[in-house]
């Protein structure tokens, strides 16, 4: 894999596709160079106005955005004049774009698909809508390899999303993989402790499959358009020619501030960083990074997994959420000591 022909890979994505993605991302990142955190006041009245408008426009999904996240967006400096706060209308436009993207991507229904995939194919919902069942089964297939899951928190209370690149399929169903990312991202965001608005990603990048540019571009678009300011930092180790290729493809497309959140390290340096970041320090470092925490006992490879219900779901999605909620409570309790 180290001798992967980058020209051969690059041929799978057209210049038009790259340019289109760049333009779409640029539209959502026009204020990227403005500092990520602002200390401008947002009044209770203004929060009520924003909340009311979101509830009116997106009645089934508006609660997805926490007050802390809405306030973090509203309190930022204005891109056209960083000495003042964003106008309320501008904040509403940014939040509306997120909600419209979620609506178009089908984000609010992703967990319904998990329930559908976990049930029998003879269930009324499965029989009445074969296309939805097929989508649910494809989503379950993407989850089952255990390549993406939440486990634990940082010392700052940010949930940690783990990526196991070696488990990713060589020939992925791009739509299903992106849907799995949306589902998992939303699950983690819903489990965040009060006041926390972003997360950390740690990627075990040993033995990744050949990169699929169309998938990577779609993931980047989802991150920028659907989850702005959600990623705090991404740590990837070890560094390989494939990971370098991926970064060379994506970095020119990324808003500047997002690009600065990607850290590529060797295993030893990554362990030192994880020891500083993770809530229980060295005890939280997983075995695949040379630590004592056995993630495989909870998130095994698909061949070692059993069906969760009567359907095709093998990934312990609901157990993951339960464990993450308990970890959130543990972190919150530690802050009161």
Question: What would your notes on this structure say?
Answer:
There is one protein chain. The protein is of the alpha/beta class. Helix content is 48%, strand content 10%. The protein has 14 helices and 7 strands. The protein has helices spanning 6-10, 15-28, 44-57, 67-74, 88-105, 110-118, 124-128, 130-144, 174-190, 213-226, 241-250, 256-259, 267-277, 317-335, and strands spanning 77-78, 81-85, 148-153, 159-164, 199-204, 231-237, 262-264. The strands form 2 sheets. It has a 5-stranded mixed β-sheet with strand order 3-4-5-6-7. Strands 1-2 form a two-stranded antiparallel sheet. It starts with 5 loop residues before the first helix and ends with a helix.
H/E series: HHHHEEHHHHEEHEHEHHEHH
> Approximately what portion of the residues adopt beta-strand conformation?
5-15%
Going across the biggest sheet, name each strand in turn.
Answer: 3-4-5-6-7
DSSP helix fraction: 40-55%
């Amino acid at each position: 894999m180290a001798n992967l022909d980058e020209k051969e890979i690059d041929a799978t994505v057209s210049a038009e596709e790259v340019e289109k993605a760049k333009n779409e991302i640029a539209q959502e990142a026009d204020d990227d160079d403005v500092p990520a955190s602002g200390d401008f006041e947002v009044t209770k009245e203004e929060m009520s106005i924003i909340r009311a408008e979101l509830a009116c426009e997106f009645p089934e999904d508006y609660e997805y955005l926490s007050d802390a996240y809405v306030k973090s967006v509203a309190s930022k400096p204005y891109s056209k004049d960083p000495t003042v706060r964003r106008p309320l209308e501008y904040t509403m436009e940014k939040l509306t774009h997120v909600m419209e993207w979620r609506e178009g991507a089908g984000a609010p229904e992703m967990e319904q698909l998990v329930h559908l995939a976990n049930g029998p194919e003879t269930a009324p919902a499965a029989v009445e809508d074969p296309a939805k069942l097929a989508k649910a089964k494809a989503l379950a297939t993407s989850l089952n390899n255990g390549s993406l899951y939440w486990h634990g928190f940082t010392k700052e209370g940010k949930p940690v999303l783990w990526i196991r690149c070696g488990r990713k399929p060589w020939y992925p169903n791009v739509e299903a993989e992106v849907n799995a990312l949306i589902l998992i991202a939303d699950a983690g965001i819903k489990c965040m402790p009060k006041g926390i608005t972003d997360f950390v990603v740690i990627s075990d990048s040993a033995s990744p499959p050949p990169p699929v540019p169309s998938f990577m571009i779609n993931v980047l678009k989802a991150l920028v358009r659907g989850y702005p300011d959600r990623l705090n930092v991404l740590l990837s180790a070890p560094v390989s020619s494939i990971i370098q290729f991926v970064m060379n493809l994506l970095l020119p497309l990324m808003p500047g501030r997002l690009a600065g959140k990607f850290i590529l390290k060797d295993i030893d340096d990554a362990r030192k960083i994880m020891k500083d970041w993770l809530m229980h320090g060295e005890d939280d470092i997983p075995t695949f990074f040379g630590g004592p925490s056995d993630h495989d006992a909870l998130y095994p490879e698909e061949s070692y997994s059993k069906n969760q219900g009567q359907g095709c779901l093998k990934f312990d999605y609901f157990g993951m959420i339960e464990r993450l909620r308990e970890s959130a409570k543990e972190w919150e309790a530690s802050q009161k000591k």
